[in-house]
Amino acid sequence: MAPDSAVTIQTGYLPGAIGRIAELHASYYARHWGFGLFFEAKVATELSAFLETHDPRRDALWTASVRGRVEGGVAIDGARAPQRGAHLRWFILSDALRGKGVGRQLVSRAVDFCVARKYPAIFLWTFEGLDAARHLYESVGFRLTCQQKGAQWGTEVNEQRFECRLATDS
């Protein structure tokens, strides 16, 4: 893989981003967690629906690319942010970018976006065992608020909800 300086982080939709982000999720989670078709279809369908109704005043997608190929991404769904908090979704990196600080850059952009919009909180769903991601989330202020067995991704796991409360000027 190219040096870190060759990584480009871009805001907004790129042609092929939906397919590539779904592919990155499907490949990683199939290899490490046994997830299958249900999960890949869920990621592709929900990401597509998000981008079809995307409003740049409340929502954002960031992609990390190397030589024009999407190698990672994250999104903020702000549709219900004033009431429930913004939803951080679809955070993924290719194996080539893991451990190089690109994930921190993506998550930091997502948090900064929410702070700029004065959202009261950000939440995300993940599951137990994704230790590197959990460490990153906690390092930027997320805290575990709920843990339960569930199968929202098509495979039973110990689901975890993390939340980051943001300072608001009230």
Q: What does this protein look like?
A:
- InterPro entries: Acyl_CoA_acyltransferase, GNAT_dom, NAT_camello-type.
- 36% of the residues lie in helices and 31% in strands.
- By secondary structure, it is an alpha+beta fold.
- The protein has a single domain (4-123), classed as Aminopeptidase (3-Layer(aba) Sandwich).
- Strands 1-2-3-4-5-7-6 form a seven-stranded mixed β-sheet, sandwiched between helices.
- The termini are far apart.
- The mean pLDDT is 93.
- Find the CATH topology: Aminopeptidase
Number of helical elements? 5
Tell me the distance between the termini.
Answer: 46 Å
Based on secondary structure, the structural category is: alpha+beta
Overall 3D shape: globular
Helices and strands, in order, run as EHHEEHEHEHEE
Uncertain spans, ≥5 residues at pLDDT below 50? Answer: none
Second rung of CATH, namely the architecture: 3-Layer(aba) Sandwich
CATH class descriptor: Alpha Beta
Could you report the average pLDDT, rounded to the nearest whole number?
93
CATH superfamily (homologous) name: Gcn5-related N-acetyltransferase (GNAT)
What share of residues is helical?
25-40%
Question: Keyphrases for this structure?
Answer:
seven-stranded mixed beta sheet, alpha+beta, Aminopeptidase
Question: What secondary-structure arrangement, pairings included, does this model have?
Answer:
Elements: E1 7-11, H1 17-33, H2 37-52, E2 60-66, E3 69-77, H3 81-84, E4 86-93, H4 102-116, E5 121-127, H5 131-139, E6 143-150, E7 157-165
Parallel strand pairs: 4-5
Antiparallel strand pairs: 1-2, 2-3, 3-4, 5-7, 6-7
Helix pairs in contact: 1-2
